[in-house]
Amino acid sequence: VQLVQSGGRLVQPGGSLTLSCTLSGTTFEAATIHWYRQPAGELRENVAFLDSDGVTTMYDKSVKGRFTVSRDSAKNMMFLQMNNLRIEDTAVYYCQLKKGYYIYWGQGTQVTVSS
After folding, report:
1. Do residues 47 and 36 make contact, with C-beta atoms less than 8 angstroms apart?
2. Strand bridging mode 17-24 / 77-82
3. What's the CA angle centered on 55, arms 78 and 18, to 5 degrees?
4. 89-115 burial by CB neighbour count: b if 16+ within 10 A, else e?
5. DSSP assignment string, 52-105
6. Nearest to 81 by CA among 111, 101, 104
7. In a 3-state reduction of DSSP, which class is residue 42?
8. What whole-number distance in Å separates Cα of residue 73 and Cα of residue 34?
9. DSSP code of residue 2
């Protein structure tokens, strides 16, 4: 099983960015999706969650209303749409899939919000 991330880059404050993770080796069936981020020198934090029903979501209060987590089961891809980005959103972002007893991580992608 592999999760390959893409989409991180430098973006200006107020801008938008979509991160993607392509899943191979399994499907989203009975799996939950999480997006984490880790600012430099800080702990990794969970910012978004999508339940196995593909509908139920939860967000950290710091991103609620600005970030949206989703998946495309046909393409085996998961997304984090980020709007109205702030300087404090700067971090390495990771996708994660939990399926049964197994946890899979993407390789991480850097998002830098700066003018």
Report:
1. yes
2. antiparallel
3. 30
4. bbbbbbbbbebeeeebebebbebebee
5. TTSS-EEE-TTTTTTEEEEEETTTTEEEEEE-S--GGG-EEEEEEEEETTEEEE
6. 111
7. coil
8. 15
9. E
pLDDT band for position 102 (cuts 50, 70, 90): very high
Cβ contacts of 54 within 8 Å, gap of 6 or more: 28, 71, 73
DSSP-derived 3-state class of residue 35: strand
pLDDT in tens, 56-97: 999 999 999 999 999 999 999 999 999 999 999 999 999 999
Rounded CA separation 31/54 (Å): 9
**Residue in this structure with the two tokens 């509908």, named with its chain if needed:** 55
Is residue 37 within 8 A of residue 93, CB to CB? The reply is yes
Whether the Cβ atoms of residue 60 and residue 47 lie closer than 8 Å to each other: yes
| Whole-number Å distance between alpha carbons of 38 and 108 | 9
Rounded-to-integer distance, Cα 15 and Cα 13, Å = 5
**Amino acid found at 45:** E
